[in-house]
């Protein structure tokens, strides 16, 4: 293993004073003003607003400050006093703005006016909302509905999302890709297939009841820091936490609670992971199979003494496919497992022994499992492991994909899906008196393919920064200009607003922290967290500009300008009172959302249930299915001299493509993002010096040249044969066809590259 002193790293704990300094560094003293602290104090609490950052749970027994370093950054980012006005756009052409960094673009602050792209002057010019809606409506009416994409980025509320999906279907398509197509789509597909539920089975209370947690490829300290509190409590309770991650992420090593005065003053750190294994990227199928192999071996040994390790009653009653899976595991050699995982057998066995001894185990994972060519097999293998000892559908156990955007899971729940079979179309037909389209729509990768081959003519973005988040940046940016119409609904300026179709509009919306006043008064909205709990959210801040509309109002405005009138579709009434939209959701999804308006303020949210948690398996076999993986290598990349697996990473100072700053504090990388992380041994073998500038080129064997230049070689503790670089800067290197087979989630966590000096 690499000597830490040879590498760039961070010595402090996650949390601690560093997290408070982190907020201050980005926002200066602005964050401690009474207005800001008042808003932060109501974050993630009943009657307050739900954080705009990640989808982590909002517990009923909340802390005084139920927010974290990065949640505070996300809130303050929306509350900024800076404004990106028509005067700004008058000064800068889009050609010029395309040379700006992601950071500088969003630094201009909140968008204030609806804008239309004027091609002649190459600028955005202000336009009225009426003009924007009429112009977009006229374009959409002239287009073939199948050629239009309705993207959503995972933030918009359940109310907005329901209206948006209805708009797309009334218009005539299921082209509703979501950011989850780049994220946990792998989960939706693999969990649905294996356990019949497309989301995680764990709830908040389970965290306090488990004896062990297995963590695969999820970076808690940066991406869901409020999870550090229950993790710290678990660690103190003696729960064994076993982590598999190529990077030694600080939040999974140790934590000082910034909200505990005692810990802050004494510098008391809690160690989080009891074992930390630096698996090679794409090595998880091999690890998980190795864990299962040891479980079978331990069961063999126990049998000899008249005991069992496997939960045989559960396996018999609830699962199918065990025999075939077991045969594959027994037939796989430890040599192959060691080679593919990059880990010694003894390490995998030590981890597996914890699994064998624990009565209640929770499996947690993130993008390290989902964003691979065989990501679905990664997830299915995790399920296999948990099934062996009945660790699904029992208190204190379960599988827990940690979801990304604050309402990404909820958007899928209320109909934002390109898969018609996941949406109650008959119910919608009855409610709104129309014939919904029944053909499959395009997901993110398919939408990109459609842009490249000309099938797609228009893109509507409900939030997000699509062009920056997707793979294959250069070819797609070029093809984007051939689109007829692009429309972006957003709070802040980003690159997706600068790469436009022939007709383009930029529509600014209210943020979730802001007071949303409609005909019947201030409106609340709702979201679903990672544990399938639904929460109300009430914004109270004065809107950033008097010209902003709410997202529901924008969706309604677009729909009214595009669609023929329908007496059952009352856009204006719905916008006047969002409770009516919640009634519609309750009608469409009556099992999960009955009494929605009454229940939305339940402390901790109301749980919409999960069949797999109740051991009801809505799968083809009616049981929980074991999956035999295709192979051991999840990356789909063959090893070759000079070919590396590039991990694209998030820093601690960004939310996806929103870059708050240049400090990746928890990894000790400061002041820059144009780094190439590589371990010192690889550096020496290749003859690279620290700080040397190199390029990366993609090695996908498809004769397309993809290159990112100007990267500074930085020694970092990573396994051999892999490299690290930041998302989204590395996205030009990701081939569009490099994605999970079953779900088409881009394989951002192992991109085949070569280094060019
Ligand atoms: N502050 C902040 N919070 C966020 C976000 C953000 O950008 N910033 N993004 C939000 C969104 S949309 C999402 S989806 C989540 C993302 O949150 P995560 O799921 O944590 O995603 P990443 O940070 O991309 O990568 C997760 C981890 O996977 C590891 N990894 C990479 N390759 C492999 C592998 O092959 N095997 C294993 N076992 N591990 C691997 C990486 O080292 C990293 O620690 O966070 C959400 N929350
Ligand atoms: N290489 C690589 N690529 C990746 C990933 C990776 O790990 N590696 N991760 C993938 C993942 S997990 C995801 S989820 C995607 C993220 O892809 P997206 O969700 O498309 O991107 P974001 O960066 O979250 O979008 C940021 C923008 O959202 C807008 N915004 C913020 N708040 C609001 C709001 O309340 N309403 C509206 N309408 N707009 C708002 C702002 O204008 C801001 O600029 O990226 C994917 N791309
Ligand atoms: Mo995500």
Automatic annotation (TrEMBL):
Occurrences of domain Molybdopterin oxidoreductase (ranges): 110-435
Organism for this UniProt entry: Terrihabitans rhizophilus
InterPro entries assigned to the protein according to its UniProt record, in alphabetical order: Asp_de-COase-like_dom_sf, MopB_CT_YdeP, MoPterin_dinucl-bd_dom, Mopterin_OxRdtase, Mopterin_OxRdtse_a_bac, Prok_molybdopt-oxidoreductase, YdeP_MopB
PANTHER family xref list: PROTEIN YDEP (PTHR43105:SF4), RESPIRATORY NITRATE REDUCTASE (PTHR43105)
Keywords noted in UniProt: 4Fe-4S, Iron, Iron-sulfur, Metal-binding, Molybdenum, Oxidoreductase
Family according to the record: Belongs to the prokaryotic molybdopterin-containing oxidoreductase family.
Domain Molybdopterin dinucleotide-binding: from-to ranges: 644-751
Protein name according to UniProt: FdhF/YdeP family oxidoreductase
Region forming the signal peptide: none
């Amino acid at each position: 293993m690499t000597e830490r002193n040879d590498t760039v790293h961070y010595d402090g704990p996650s949390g601690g004073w560093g997290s408070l300094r982190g907020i201050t560094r980005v926002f200066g003293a602005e964050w401690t003003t009474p207005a800001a602290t008042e808003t932060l104090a109501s974050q993630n609490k009943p009657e307050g607003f739900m954080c705009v950052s990640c989808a982590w749970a909002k517990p009923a027994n909340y802390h005084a400050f139920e927010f974290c370093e990065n949640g505070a950054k996300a809130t303050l980012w929306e509350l900024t006093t800076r404004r990106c006005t028509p005067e700004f756009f008058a000064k800068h052409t889009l050609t010029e703005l395309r040379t700006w960094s992601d950071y500088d673009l969003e630094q201009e602050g909140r968008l204030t006016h609806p804008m239309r792209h004027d091609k002649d002057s190459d600028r955005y010019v202000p336009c009225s909302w009426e003009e924007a809606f009429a112009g977009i409506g006229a374009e959409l009416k002239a287009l073939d509905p199948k050629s239009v994409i309705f993207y959503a980025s995972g933030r918009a509320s359940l109310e907005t999302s329901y209206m948006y999906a209805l708009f797309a279907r009334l218009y005539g398509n299921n082209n509703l890709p979501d950011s989850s197509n780049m994220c946990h789509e792998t989960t939706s597909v693999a969990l649905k297939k294996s356990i019949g539920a497309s989301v995680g089975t764990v709830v908040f209370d389970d965290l306090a009841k488990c004896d062990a947690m297995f963590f695969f490829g999820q970076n808690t300290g940066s991406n869901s820091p409020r999870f550090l509190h229950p993790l710290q409590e678990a660690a103190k309770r003696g729960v064994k936490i076993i982590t598999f991650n190529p990077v030694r992420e600080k939040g999974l090593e140790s934590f000082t609670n910034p909200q505990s005065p005692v810990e802050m003053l004494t510098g008391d750190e809690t160690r989080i992971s009891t074992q930390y294994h630096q698996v090679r990227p794409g090595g998880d199928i091999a690890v998980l199979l190795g864990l299962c192999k040891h479980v079978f071996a331990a069961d063999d040994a126990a049998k000899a003494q008249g005991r069992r390790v496997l939960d045989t009653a559960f396996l018999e009653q609830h699962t199918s496919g065990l025999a075939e899976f077991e045969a594959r595991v027994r037939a796989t050699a430890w040599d192959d497992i060691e080679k593919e995982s990059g880990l010694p057998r003894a390490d995998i066995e030590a981890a597996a022994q914890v699994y064998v001894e624990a009565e209640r185990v929770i499996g947690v994972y993130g993008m390290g499992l989902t964003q691979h060519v065989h990501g679905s097999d990664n997830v299915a293998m995790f399920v296999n492991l948990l099934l062996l000892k009945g660790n699904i559908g029992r208190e204190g156990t379960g599988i827990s994909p940690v979801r990304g955007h604050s309402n990404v899971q909820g958007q899928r729940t209320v109909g934002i899906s390109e898969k018609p079979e996941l949406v109650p179309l008959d119910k919608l037909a009855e409610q709104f008196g129309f014939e919904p389209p029944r053909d499959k729509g395009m997901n993110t990768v398919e939408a990109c393919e459609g842009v490249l081959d000309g099938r797609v003519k228009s893109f509507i973005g409900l939030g997000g920064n699509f062009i920056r988040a997707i793979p294959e940046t250069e070819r797609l940016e070029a093809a984007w200009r051939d689109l007829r119409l692009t429309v972006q609904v957003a709070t802040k300026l980003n690159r997706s607003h600068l790469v436009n179709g022939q007709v383009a509009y930029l529509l600014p919306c209210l943020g979730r922290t802001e007071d949303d006043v409609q005909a019947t008064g201030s409106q609340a909205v709702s979201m679903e967290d990672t544990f399938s709990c639904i929460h109300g959210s009430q914004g109270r801040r004065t809107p950033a500009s008097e010209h902003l509309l709410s997202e529901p109002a924008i969706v309604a405005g677009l729909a009214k300008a595009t669609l023929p009138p329908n007496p059952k579709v009352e856009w204006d009434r719905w916008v006047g009172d969002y409770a009516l939209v919640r009634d519609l959701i309750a009608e469409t999804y009556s099992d999960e959302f009955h009494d929605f308006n009454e229940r939305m303020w339940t402390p901790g949210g109301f749980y919409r249930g999960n069949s797999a948690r109740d051991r009801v398996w809505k799968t083809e076999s009616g049981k929980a299915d074991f999956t035999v993986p295709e192979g051991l290598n999840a990356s789909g990349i063959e090893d070759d001299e000079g070919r590396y697996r590039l991990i694209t990473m998030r820093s601690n100072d960004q939310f996806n493509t929103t870059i708050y700053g240049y400090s990746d504090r928890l990894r000790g990388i400061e002041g820059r993002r144009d780094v190439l992380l590589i371990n010192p041994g690889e550096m020496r073998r290749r003859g690279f010096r620290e700080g040397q500038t190199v390029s990366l080129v993609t090695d996908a064997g498809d004769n397309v040249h993809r290159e990112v230049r100007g990267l500074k070689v930085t020694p970092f503790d990573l396994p051999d044969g892999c490299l690290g670089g930041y998302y989204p800067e590395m996205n030009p290197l990701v081939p569009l066809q490099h994605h999970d087979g079953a779900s088409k989630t881009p394989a951002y966590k192992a991109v085949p590259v070569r280094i060019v000096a």
